[in-house]
């Protein structure tokens, strides 16, 4: 049963939506866009369409989950290929990469909205997102995209409460950023690289982890998990190492600093990670390589390929709402 606050905020959202005769929703399957998708479907029915951007930067398991949720709700949806990796500005992976990604998405959606005469194009940004400078939001504003959650002052917590009231199973889903956010700025983004990262993260998902990032550092895969999950990761290190190595990484690193959203988008310099001629990771990572001991020396025992490090770079990037 929903609380008075949940019911009030959901009612406000529906009342905001019905000012439009029809709506096209940029939908990714995250809790924010899922709430918008479900509320628009309830308010406008057949005059609503949820669009899922098909891209190498969105994990296929996330795409499948988004489709499954739309079908559960009964909402109309459509898959739309965005091809942002073909844009040299995006592929160069600059600090404002998200601007080019969102531009590609919203350009496609705007053309669709105009062609099929939708009354408005909506996204899932919430009120908390307005507190941060996000390049992707600028792309949305330039293209006339509306953000009902943000415009109504609905915070992330409020959105999760509405999702509960709507009986959406994603109400407690951790925030998920695109796969390109795992790559240090300046490293070229390619579909092949994104696919490698996706396969590495699939290993963690298959083992039951819900919140994670596999940060790409050349031959090194740096795994971030919540602090409370680190001990379980160590217990399952053999499976993690084998699975992640099978995707093409030579070294597998468990970051002792734990999960931090946007840890590669540091405000200052990124922590350099290189591999020495001898094959041992240097410049911010310590631990073991394929046949090294856990103290970082060559030879000996330890968990093969499991590198533990206290890297603590911080920063922000656009998430998938």
Helices and strands, with pairings:
Elements: H1 4-17, E1 23-26, H2 31-44, E2 48-54, H3 60-73, E3 77-81, H4 88-91, H5 97-115, E4 121-122, H6 135-142, H7 148-151, H8 156-165, H9 191-206, E5 213-217, E6 220-224, H10 230-235, H11 237-245, E7 251-255, E8 274-275, E9 281-282, E10 306-309
Parallel strand pairs: 1-2, 1-4, 2-3, 6-7, 7-10
Antiparallel strand pairs: 5-6, 8-9
Characterization of this structure:
By secondary structure, this protein is of the alpha/beta class. It has two domains: 4-172, HUPs (Rossmann fold); 179-309, no CATH class. The chain is 37% helix and 13% strand. The strands form three sheets. A four-stranded parallel beta sheet has the order 3-2-1-4, with helices on both faces. A four-stranded mixed beta sheet has the order 5-6-7-10. Helix 1 (4-17) crosses helix 2. The longest helix has 19 residues, at 97-115. The two termini are 25 Å apart.
Outline:
The chain is an alpha/beta fold and 321 residues long. The protein has helices at 4-17, 31-44, 60-73, 88-91, 97-115, 135-142, 148-151, 156-165, 191-206, 230-235, 237-245; strands at residues 23-26, 48-54, 77-81, 121-122, 213-217, 220-224, 251-255, 274-275, 281-282, 306-309. Helices cover 37% and strands 13% of the residues.
């Amino acid at each position: 049963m929903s609380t008075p606050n949940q019911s009030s905020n959901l009612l406000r959202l529906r009342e905001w939506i019905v000012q439009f005769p029809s709506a096209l929703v940029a939908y990714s399957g995250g809790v924010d866009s899922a709430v918008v998708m479900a509320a628009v479907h309830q308010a406008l029915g057949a005059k609503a369409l949820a669009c899922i951007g098909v891209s190498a930067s969105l994990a296929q398991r996330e795409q499948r989950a988004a489709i499954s949720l739309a079908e559960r709700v009964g909402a109309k949806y459509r898959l739309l290929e965005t091809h942002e990796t073909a844009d040299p500005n995006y592929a160069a992976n600059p600090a404002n990469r998200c601007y080019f990604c969102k531009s590609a998405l919203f350009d496609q959606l705007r053309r669709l909205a105009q062609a099929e005469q939708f009354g408005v194009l909506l996204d899932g940004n919430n009120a908390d997102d307005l507190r941060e400078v996000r390049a992707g939001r600028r792309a949305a504003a330039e293209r006339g995209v509306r953000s009902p959650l943000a415009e109504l002052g609905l915070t992330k917590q409020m959105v999760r409460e509405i999702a509960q009231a709507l009986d959406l199973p994603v109400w407690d889903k951790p925030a998920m950023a695109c796969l390109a956010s795992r790559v240090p700025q300046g490293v070229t983004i390619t579909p092949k690289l994104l696919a490698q990262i996706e396969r590495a993260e699939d290993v963690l998902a298959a083992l039951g982890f819900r919140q994670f990032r596999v940060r790409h550092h050349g031959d090194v895969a740096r795994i971030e998990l919540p602090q409370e999950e680190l001990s379980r990761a160590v217990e399952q290190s053999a499976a993690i190492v084998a699975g992640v190595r099978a995707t093409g990484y030579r070294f597998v690193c468990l970051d002792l600093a734990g999960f931090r959203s946007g840890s590669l988008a540091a405000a200052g310099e990124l922590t350099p990670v290189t591999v020495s001629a001898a094959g041992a990771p240097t410049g911010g990572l310590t631990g073991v390589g394929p046949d090294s001991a856990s103290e970082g020396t060559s030879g000996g025992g330890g968990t093969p390929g499991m590198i533990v490090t206290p890297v603590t770079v911080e920063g922000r990037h656009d998430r998938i709402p």
